[in-house]
Design a protein that fits this description.
The complex is a heterodimer of chains A (479) and B (403). Chain A folds into four domains: 4-118, no CATH class; 124-191, no CATH class; 199-247, no CATH class; 280-478, Uracil-DNA Glycosylase, subunit E, CATH 3.40.470.10. Helix content of chain A is 43%, strand content 13%. Chain A is built from 18 helices and 14 strands. The relative contact order of chain A is 0.06. Chain B folds into two domains: 3-212, no CATH class; 307-393, no CATH class. Chain B has 15 helices and twelve strands. In chain B, α2 links the parallel β5 and β6 (107-111). In chain B, α3 (118-134) runs parallel beside α4. Chain B is globular, with a radius of gyration of 23 Å. Classes of the chains: A alpha/beta (479), B alpha/beta (403). Chains A and B meet through α4, β3, α5, α6 and α7 of A and α1, β3, β4, β5 and α2 of B.
């Protein structure tokens, strides 16, 4: 005769089971001595055992328990207690022995509960019935096999957080008012709205997405058993779809291939080939309208300068000032570039100036917008535009200012120090690598700054000479 | 929803149904905040099944079935007499959101016929995705069909909005593509796949969001005369070269408006199924294409038995395998033992010696596995070598088609 009688409340009483396990283990009860009842009002048996110390169990066991307590099998608590007891008796890895009859049976129950949860998430249908205030409200009626309402509800909260909804089941109800989840008594099918304005079109979709040439109702029933059908509006279409399938297919197979009734739209087909932007302006409109690939950037800062410019300067990305004014190289680095260009005799107004990345990537820190270096992947997102831009401008020489521009133009990271000077870029562009002017601004030491600035001006002088002396391509190839 | 919209939805769902993929898996777990709508669980959910046994997970529609291309296998080709329709961007956004709120779908799978130009079409499709994400705060799943003929910067943009991108290779050889889909070309398809593959893995490495559920593709089976070996070789190349998440095989299916160039026939559903099984062996069981194909004859898989069993029957000298001691790789080659069953066996045998009844609790495929296994209380004496073993293991194929 059982010496302990545990009464847990109806449904999935995880808290009650936990407490019972602690108490029973503290009292050294063995599984055969315990009788479980799951139909009570939540009282802990006739003989109230004192609570015991917490029981440490492997994480996987905890997960298994949280699912199996939802199972409708009245034996679930007895089986779970037997498992916990054996683990406590030394079989710590019992769950790994999936061939053990007890573990196997619990695994099947676990699977049944998971499947039930999954099917509830999948097959539940909301219907809209607005409240008087005009606020949207959705209600669903669902009949799960197991006590899963509480376990299933968080999924619907995550997904439909901004909606107000109720889920009614024969085993209780869940209600979400936009901020709080509440559980209530069981509902009735009649408490949910009888239909919904979108059900006809949903059924139309369902019917149309079915391919009669692949008819396989057994596979459908395997995944969507009949018991679910009565609460799913689209399933009313099933009998007719199955009935008509063979004649629809027969009809397709018998029908002669028909000649087109409309004339061939040859002009339109030919015109498809002309989708490429034909001018730099057209390309710039595309860039301006596109979504930034970096976080921050409020607008695209486009390249500036005449088509046919002998020199194209490519920087990293617009900075704070450039983003505000919408023009490249107008901030502190741009001013330095202007000064150096003037000293080297390069006319900025006759040069093309642009950036590898078209948006200002930054992180907001209080009122400041802190520049962030674009990643290699981000640079590649922008690369198509840069290359197309340069193809329109057709400069004799493309100058990469700093590492990001080199990455975009050479297709790989190169150390600036060692690569400084003439270079061959991808897509056939003759190139020149030098530092980014912002590098000069960042040097802490005045002497070093002067020296670096002089070297930068010297680079510009060389660049100017290369571009002026004719075809930069041949020049760099000759070096 | 008004009737004209319902009619359009029927036309544009019918036009999209020949694409096999409806998966909503692979997206990272996420949930919209207070103002948004939707979530992804990582695993994907099938919200219904149609009588063809296929899952309805996403709202799978075309933006329009008007198309300037003339692909012989496609119901929407420009020379087809099918009824045409076009959704506006707002209409698609609205239907997606309203269906989603009723828990009919996991999200949207948007494709389209080519109108005006590939770029224009792609821009319109992206506008739908952008509006869903931006204006509706939609955090559900979005799969965008990428148009490989579109400009590369549009493909770059598509990954910002979509969970999954896909380009269909459609036919398993470039000759077939040239013959049956004159406006397509396999070089541009591969270029687009390569571009997406690079960006997807870069973004993953840099922890940025760009098509986090990866890319997939579809191959139509049975429209041309490519062998299974040819199809699988193409898949293996795609998995290797472009790190695809999935290759879908779609048995060429009768369409109501067949092309004179490509007469229709009943779909090769069993062949399609065998290709999926072979694909699985390729990706998860350590098989190579030559090994898989060696199980059949003439470059075609055996239609009667699954490719793993076919391989095992031709390599009987490697069996039986001891369930209590064999390496994982060997167990994976036992017919009837799936990957999970093998994992369970390997875990359980650390603690216990497995008998046949134990194995029965670890796999549902014991009937097929038995002749190839040794357990503590079982040796398949002679069974492995029986000439009629094949006949004993062949289950008459399930009714998969009408024919």
């Amino acid at each position: 005769m059982a010496s302990h009688h545990v009464v847990l409340s109806r449904g999935a009483d995880l808290a009650g089971f936990r407490r019972a396990v602690r108490a029973l283990l503290a009292a050294s009860a063995v599984p055969d001595d315990v009788e479980w009842s799951a139909e009570g009002a939540g009282l802990f048996g006739s003989e109230a055992l004192p609570d015991g110390p917490p029981v440490a169990l492997p994480r996987a066991v905890g997960e298994l328990i949280s699912h199996v307590v939802c199972h409708s099998d009245p034996e679930r608590y007895a089986l779970l207690f037997a498992l916990v007891w054996r683990i406590q008796m030394g079989e710590r890895s019992l769950l790994e022995v999936a061939s053990d009859p007890l573990v196997h049976r619990l695994a099947l129950m676990d699977k049944a509960v998971r499947r039930d949860l999954h099917k509830m998430h999948a097959f539940l249908r909301f219907r809209r019935a607005d409240e008087e205030a005009g606020a949207e409200r959705f209600t669903a009626w669902f009949e799960p096999d197991h006590f899963i309402l509480e376990a299933a509800a968080p999924f619907f909260v995550d997904r439909f957080r901004r909606m107000r909804w109720s889920i009614l089941t024969p085993m209780g109800s869940a209600h979400w008012d936009g901020s709080e989840l509440a559980f209530g008594p069981s509902g009735r099918r009649a408490d949910a709205p009888p239909t919904d304005a979108f059900e006809a079109s949903w059924r139309g979709y369902y019917e149309s997405t079915f391919n009669p040439a692949r008819l396989n109702p057994a596979a459908m029933r395997g995944e969507m058993p009949r018991k679910y059908w009565r609460n799913m509006p689209e399933t009313a279409a099933i009998p007719a779809l199955i009935r008509s399938a063979s004649s629809r297919v027969e009809d397709m197979l018998q029908r002669e291939a028909a000649m087109p009734t409309k004339r061939d739209p040859q002009k339109a087909v030919a015109a498809m080939a002309n989708q490429d932007p034909e001018t730099l302006d057209a390309l710039n409109r595309i860039i301006a309208a596109a979504e930034p690939f970096v976080h921050g950037g409020t607008r695209a800062v486009l390249g500036e300068g005449p088509v046919g410019a002998p020199l194209a300067f490519v920087g990293e990305q617009p900075g704070d000032q450039e983003d505000v004014q919408g023009r490249p190289f107008v901030g502190p680095a741009g001013q330095l570039l202007d000064r150096a260009m003037a000293e080297a005799g390069v006319d900025r107004s006759r040069s093309y100036v642009t950036n590898a990345v078209k948006h200002f990537k930054f992180e907001q820190r209080g009122k400041r917008r802190l520049h962030q270096t674009p990643t290699a992947g981000e640079v590649k997102h922008y690369r198509w535009w840069l290359i197309r831009e340069l193809e329109f401008v057709q400069p004799r020489l493309v100058v990469a200012l700093g590492a990001t521009a080199v990455l975009a133009l050479a297709g790989k990271a190169l150390p600036i120090g060692r690569s400084r000077g003439s270079a061959q870029f991808l897509d056939g562009f003759a190139g020149f690598i030098t530092v980014h002017p912002s590098y000069l601004l960042r040097l802490p030491d005045e002497a070093a700054k002067r020296e670096a600035y002089a070297a930068f001006v010297a680079d510009l002088v060389q660049i100017h000479a290369l571009a002026a002396s004719g075809d930069g391509r041949t020049l760099s190839a000759a070096e | 929803m008004d009737t004209s919209l319902t009619v359009k939805l029927r036309i544009l769902a019918d036009a999209a149904k020949y694409d096999a993929s409806c998966a909503s898996s692979g997206a990272p777990k996420r949930a919209a905040g207070r103002e948004g709508l939707g979530s992804t669980t990582g695993a994907g959910i099938c919200h219904a099944y149609t009588p063809d046994g296929r899952c309805v997970s996403l709202l799978k529609i075309l933006m329009t079935n008007v198309c300037l291309f003339d692909c012989a296998y496609c119901i929407n080709r420009r020379s087809s007499n099918v009824r045409r329709a076009r959704f506006s961007v707002d209409e698609i956004v609205n239907v997606t959101v309203e269906f989603y709120k009723r828990n009919y779908i996991e999200g949207l799978f948007l494709s389209s016929g080519i109108i005006r130009s590939p770029d224009y079409t792609m821009e319109q499709m992206m506008l739908v995705a952008k509006r869903l994400r931006r204006d509706e705060g939609f955090a559900g799943y979005i799969h965008l069909k990428t148009i490989p003929e579109a400009s590369p910067w549009l493909i770059e943009q598509a990954g910002l909005w979509a969970d999954r991108l896909s380009v269909n290779v459609e036919l398993p050889s470039s000759q077939s593509l040239r013959r049956l889909a004159p406006e397509k070309d396999s070089a541009s398809i591969r270029t687009a796949m390569g571009q997406m593959s690079e960006r997807i893995s870069e973004a993953k490495a840099e922890r940025r969001r760009f098509a986090p559920a990866g890319q997939s593709t579809q191959i139509i089976v049975g429209a041309d005369d490519t062998t299974d070996e040819g199809v699988l070789a193409m898949s293996a190349g795609l998995y290797d070269g472009f790190r695809l998440n999935r290759v879908y095989y779609s048995a060429f299916s009768p369409i109501p408006a067949a092309s004179p160039v490509l007469p229709i026939k009943p779909p090769q559903l069993i062949r399609e199924n065998r290709l999926y099984q072979a694909d699985w062996l390729l990706r998860h069981y350590g098989f190579t294409v030559p090994e898989i194909v060696a199980g059949g004859a003439g470059g075609m898989l055996d239609l009667e038995i699954d490719p793993k069993l076919a391989w095992a029957l031709k390599h009987r000298e490697r069996y039986p395998v001891d369930v209590n001691s064999a390496e994982r790789e060997l167990l994976l080659r036992v017919p009837g033992l799936g990957k999970r069953a093998v994992d369970r066996i390997v875990a359980a045998r650390r603690w216990t010696t497995l008998r046949l009844a134990d194995v029965a609790r670890l796999t549902a495929g014991l009937k097929r596995a038995r002749p190839f296994l040794i357990a503590a209380d079982h040796r398949p004496v002679g069974l492995t070598d029986r000439l009629d073993l094949r006949a004993r293991l062949v289950t008459p194929p399930r009714q998969l088609s009408l024919f």
